[in-house]
Design a protein that fits this description.
The complex is a heterodimer of chains A (509) and B (326). Chain A is α+β, with helices and mostly antiparallel strands and 509 residues long. Chain A is 31% helix and 23% strand. In chain A, the strands form 3 sheets. In chain A, strands 1, 8, 9, 10, 11, 12, 13, 14, 15, 16 and 17 form an 11-stranded mixed β-sheet that branches. Chain A has a 4-stranded antiparallel β-sheet with strand order 4-5-7-6, with helices on one face. In chain B, helix 5 runs antiparallel to helix 6 and helix 11 runs antiparallel to helix 12. Classes of the chains: A alpha+beta (509), B mainly alpha (326). Chains A and B meet through helix 8 and helix 14 of A and helix 2, helix 3, helix 7, helix 10 and helix 11 of B.
């Protein structure tokens, strides 16, 4: 009688061992709006793409390119780059992955409203053989590899003929998904939960990743998200608000990982709305009166890097000599010289739920400007309304943040400081309405310049000109902050673009 | 009676029309839906084109006309985010909210009634005074503080209940995804329904107490005492029955507060119901969904109010319906 019981117990234990899967519960503030990787260019979409699809190549933590579905690549001539693809990779549907899928995906990217701008540079993609493709660009492009990190090959056989991209309507691609990624989508409740399971046929068998199942819950509210981590309901969250960082750090069993981000926050001073702002002395005074370091220290609790320019130190355009400056005396003098000793009134707008502590930062800036007798009428808006106001250039000073899609300075320059041009989309976020022909020609040249030395000089030249003109007010680069339970080894998989490579995540048992 | 019914329905239609105009008019103030749909690098021209496709550049009148024509047929527009008819999205989330509200109401009934009765029978007792003190504090503490406190104590410190979400649900006849019928779902229900109940409870405790005290003074209660009826029978059968009538009326009015509070509770607890959906829709500028929510909630009010009026007439025929309410 006893022996069967013991055997049953052993068997029970045995099965328990087998069925136990490593599950990751995570809560991020955003989720993908669609399963179609080409519908919206957003952080949520790209995070999802890294889970279910897999890129040709991606950035590693040392800012080098890492081969994924492309094993290696070479430049054939000034306009052509050849990509050699990995063999023996299959999509979730079982269809084999080949060059046709890459050609199909890039051609689809060229029709996507959101990605089109980036892929305009690609003239054509040609299949050489089943595992080789040539990418031809319209002009010599130094950033072709940066752009190719956005190519997540899609299953051509699965999507073909039902792959239209519609922003506001249901499409096949927005509801169905087939990729080669480390995870397979199992279940999705829009806006509340997404469940993924490990792809049993994933090609990267050397990856240390041991997560079998992922549940992603988008939690908007900072306090709810943190409470979910503290109560143990989730294992991994992003982001953590600066006021909670110290508390999170002090709790045993939790780890906090921060990385400097490449998103620059800045202020535009609209020169066409206000004649006062056309005076370089006034712009300089505003720049000098704003104390970036103090903002970072007091409001962002040190989780940001004060900025004196647009390019972070890892971008080519960064000029070491330009530091954030604060000199109230000089600022007051400049105002006096410009004839505005008594000051004037300015209107200012900032979002209040887009960037970390954006409203508080805006209030601090208004207070700092009052020291040089500029009275600021500050209005903060939720992001949904703010960006409409931004497009309408509704205030004299406006706050904006910009993250370079290509991990390169020129992308920032194109959108933030190039002369506004509705046709080409250049200067779309240039609410300064600042226009400098030399900057525009430098931007154009830098887009084609293959010589790294010369390219570096061009980008730094733009940065220097912006500084000399006091064209904008750079504020800071905010940091990314993740928190997780200690057993979840996130340090190895998070990166400065905020696309955690969860396929490689290792969780201790 | 028929005239009354007819008038009441006419009135309801009129109210619904006003609600629809208002809920449609707020759309414009929410922000730009196209901004939320596209990445930052999409040019202004393309955005304009998308806006044209969506008909957002038409005049208010023609946009409203299109909306009203659909609404009459039961089509309140298609959600931009969910890409499904807005009404379907809301109805799918409704069970979660109804369950939350239901549990909160049960807690209120079970807790508030004895507390109110106790406070009325023994107004000088220490416990009664304490109850009154707590309820007056409860009236002034905002719901999110209560909710955060509950999360802190029961989810983070004691680890007794989950801090967010709805947990596991079971399928009831393919119609209703319910969390009431399994342990995980119930655990998830505890904190949100408790904070919702705590927010609404003080009013009921005070109301029951006041009504009960008044009724205990009345003739028929004194008569009951002199007849020698037992105390529990007098308090809980004779007195309570009459206390509850006005309480239920007020309870009906409080339904509006309940709806508003579910929005807050659901946001704090990430509860996947209608209120959370609404807040999410606002931040996503999913304007069709926002309008649809306002219309559905408005409709619920109109229907309950109309029903309450009708039932009043049926229960108490001395209310002369034809001259009442219009």
């Amino acid at each position: 009688m006893r022996i069967p019981v013991i055997i049953a117990c052993c068997l029970g234990l045995f099965f328990c061992q087998i069925t136990r899967a490593t599950t990751l519960n995570m809560a991020f503030d955003a989720d993908p709006v669609s399963l179609d990787p080409h519908e919206q260019l957003s952080e949520g979409t790209l995070q999802f793409s890294h889970l279910v699809f897999d890129p040709l190549l991606r950035w590693n933590q040392n800012r080098q390119f890492e081969a994924r579905l492309a094993t290696h690549w070479e430049r054939i001539n000034s306009h052509t780059t050849r990509f050699h693809l990995r063999k023996d990779v299959v999509f979730r549907t079982g269809h084999p992955f080949s060059a046709k899928d890459v050609v199909y995906t890039i051609e689809r990217l060229k029709t996507s409203p959101d990605f089109r701008a980036m892929f305009d540079t690609v003239d054509s993609v040609v299949k050489i053989d089943d595992y080789t493709v040539d990418v031809h660009t319209t002009y010599t492009n130094p950033l072709i590899l940066n752009i190719m990190t956005y190519v997540f090959p899609m299953d051509r056989v699965f999507y073909q003929n039902q792959d239209q991209i519609v922003k506001y309507g249901e499409t096949f691609a927005s509801r169905h998904v087939s990729g080669t990624g480390p995870f397979v989508l199992k279940n999705r409740e829009l806006g509340s939960r997404m469940t993924l399971e490990r792809n049993p046929n994933y090609w990267d068998t050397e990856s240390p990743g041991n997560v079998d199942q992922i549940t992603i819950t988008p939690i908007r509210a900072d306090s709810t998200r943190l409470a979910a981590l503290l109560s143990g309901d989730v294992d991994f969250i992003f982001p953590i608000s600066p006021i909670d960082i110290e508390r999170t750090k002090s709790i045993p069993g939790l780890q906090l990982v921060t990385l400097p981000h490449t998103r620059i926050l800045l202020l535009h001073m609209n020169q066409s709305r206000r004649p006062e702002l056309q005076d370089i002395r006034v712009r300089k005074a505003i720049n000098l009166a704003i104390n970036q370091s103090l903002i970072v220290e007091k409001i962002l609790k040190g989780y940001a890097t004060p900025a004196g320019q647009l390019s972070p130190d890892r971008f080519l355009g960064h000029v070491n000599q330009i530091k954030p400056e604060y000199d109230l005396k000089k600022a007051q003098q400049l105002m006096k010289q410009a004839g505005y000793e008594k000051g004037f009134r300015l209107s200012m707008m900032a979002p209040n739920n887009r960037y970390i502590n954006d409203e508080k930062v805006a209030q601090a800036i208004a207070a700092m400007l009052s020291r040089i007798n500029i009275t600021v009428d500050l209005k903060t808006l939720p992001k949904a309304q703010y960006f409409k106001a931004f497009d309408n250039r509704s205030a004299d000073i406006m706050m904006i943040g910009w993250q370079s899609d290509t991990m390169d300075s020129n992308n920032i320059f194109e959108f933030i400081v190039a002369c506004p041009d509705a046709q080409s989309g250049l200067g779309a976020y240039n609410a300064s309405e600042y226009c400098n022909a030399s900057i525009n020609s430098d931007i154009r040249q830098a887009n084609r310049e293959m010589n790294p030395e010369r390219r570096l000089r061009l980008l730094q030249q733009i940065e220097q000109t912006l500084y000399n003109d006091a064209a904008i007010v750079p504020l800071y680069w905010q940091h990314l902050t993740w928190a997780a339970k200690n057993k979840v080894k996130i340090r190895a998989i998070v990166n400065e673009q905020n696309y955690p490579y969860l396929g490689d995540l290792f969780i201790e048992e | 009676m028929l005239i009354f019914l007819f008038r009441r329905l006419l009135q309801a239609c009129f109210v619904m029309m006003i609600i629809s105009v208002i809920s449609f008019a707020v759309q414009d103030k929410l922000g730009d839906p196209v901004q939320q749909m596209v990445g930052m690098t999409v040019s202004l021209e393309e955005r304009e084109q998308l806006r044209n496709e969506l008909g957002l550049n038409d005049s208010f009148i023609s946009q409203y006309w299109r909306f009203a024509k659909g609404a009459v047929r039961g089509d309140l527009g298609t959600s931009y985010y969910y890409k499904e008819p807005a009404l379907d999205v809301i109805l799918k989330k409704m069970p979660a909210t109804l369950e939350l509200a239901f549990c909160a109401i049960i807690i209120i009934i079970v807790v508030a009634t004895p507390c109110g009765v106790l406070a009325a029978i023994q107004p000088k007792h220490v416990l009664s005074r304490l109850l009154m003190f707590i309820s007056s504090v409860g009236l002034s503490v905002p719901i999110f503080i209560v909710a955060i406190l509950l999360v802190y104590v029961f989810a983070i410190e004691l680890n007794m209940a989950p801090s967010f979400g709805r947990g596991q649900t079971t399928d009831i006849l393919g119609l209703w995804q319910s969390g009431i019928f399994n342990k995980d779902g119930l655990q998830h229900l505890v904190l949100p329904s408790l904070s919702l109940a705590i927010a609404l409870m003080p009013i009921f405790v005070r109301l029951i107490r006041a009504e009960m005290m008044e009724i205990l003074q009345s003739e028929y209660i004194r008569f009951a005492w002199s007849k020698g009826l037992s105390a529990p029978r007098i308090y809980f059968v004779h007195a309570l029955k009459n206390t509850m009538l006005p309480v239920i009326t007020v309870g009906g009015i409080q339904a509006g507060t309940l709806v508003a509070y579910t929005i807050l509770t659901e946001t704090i607890f990430q509860w996947p119901g209608m209120g959370f959906l609404f807040m999410d829709a606002v931040s996503r500028v999913d304007t069709p969904l926002v309008s649809a929510y306002l219309i559905v909630v408005g409709g619920m009010f109109v229907v309950t109010n109309t029903l309450v009026d009708l039932i009043y007439g049926l229960v108490n025929p001395t209310v002369r319906l034809a001259s009442h309410g219009l």
